Amino acid sequence: MRVQPNGRLSSAFFKLNRSGSGVDLMFGKDDETPDTVEALLRAGDRDLPPWQEGPADLAARYVWGAHALTQDEGDYPDESRQYLDMLPKFPGRRRQWRVSQMFAMHPPIASEELLIAIDDLVLVHGETPSHQEVAVATFMEFEVADIAAVRQAIRLRPEDFEPRPSAPNLFDWIKPRTRFPEERAVHGLIELRDTSVWAHAPTLSTASQLVTIVSTLSNGSSRLVGVDWDGPEGLLIAPPGMQIVEDD
């Protein structure tokens, strides 16, 4: 909303789809009164999930990020400018806006610099099958209070961790296969160092699982102190069901 010189309001509304299509709808009016705007918002209560008023800066970041997502699919009609021009602009390129929108959280899950760095890896191919995930080689290091206690906790879970014969401090994180649950496949790596735990995962979802696992093994004392990412060529293990999708 913006207040006009005559005291009335100019409004712009955006329907966002964060699943991939970006902005589904834009509309608005000039010369509205606060009562008509409030009535419009209340009329939509039955069709909208619970919502609350938020900072204009955050709302603008969501819209510009969704705008960048939609631009990946095609151009906006010219009349959309009247609504977009009501939003504050942000520095950077469309890719940065897109990453800010996709990962906007309070507090943020990571610095914007880190999110921008992994954007190309996360959005590596538009034809990824819906039941699979893009491979992102993820490397993490955790500080822990008692490395000996972590080692003992791993030894008590032989169904989840298998030591490498040639490297006694390196363990395969194993899970039952989906189609053959009596068999177990390697889904990640954990290495015990002097005062820290190093972990490697082939995807972002398995990396998030490893964060929880290391926390459990360390009795809640673990603290993530370093993260790095690489493309599929950086994988140290071949995750089960891995497929290579070639570009046209």
Produce the secondary structure layout:
Elements (H helix, E strand, L loop, with lengths): L1 E2 L5 E2 L2 E5 L4 E6 L6 H10 L12 H16 L9 H4 L9 H9 L9 H11 L14 E7 L3 H9 L5 E4 L2 E10 L7 E9 L3 E6 L2 H14 L5 E8 L18
Antiparallel strand pairs: 1-2, 3-4, 5-9, 5-10, 6-7, 7-8, 8-9
Helix pairs in contact: 2-4, 4-5
Task: Characterize the structure shown.
By secondary structure, the protein is an alpha+beta fold. It is elongated. The strands form three sheets. It has a six-stranded antiparallel sheet, covered by helices on one side. Strands 1-2 form a two-stranded antiparallel ribbon. The chain has two domains: 2-122, no CATH class; 137-234, 2-Layer Sandwich (TATA-Binding Protein). α2 (56-71) packs across α4 and α4 (94-102) crosses α5. The relative contact order is 0.12. The chain is 29% helix and 24% strand.
Rg calculated over all Cα atoms: 24 Å
Distance between the termini: 45 Å
Strand content: 15-25%
What would the average pLDDT be, to the nearest integer?
77
Overall helicity: 25-40%
- Strand neighbour order, sheet with most strands: 6-7-8-9-5-10
Order of helices and strands: EEEEHHHHHEHEEEEHE
The largest pleated sheet is described as:
6 strands, antiparallel
Count of domains: 2
* Estimated structural class: alpha+beta
| Spans where pLDDT lies below 50 across 5 or more residues | 101-110, 121-125
Instruction: Enumerate how many helices there are, as a single number.
Output: 7
Overall geometric form: elongated
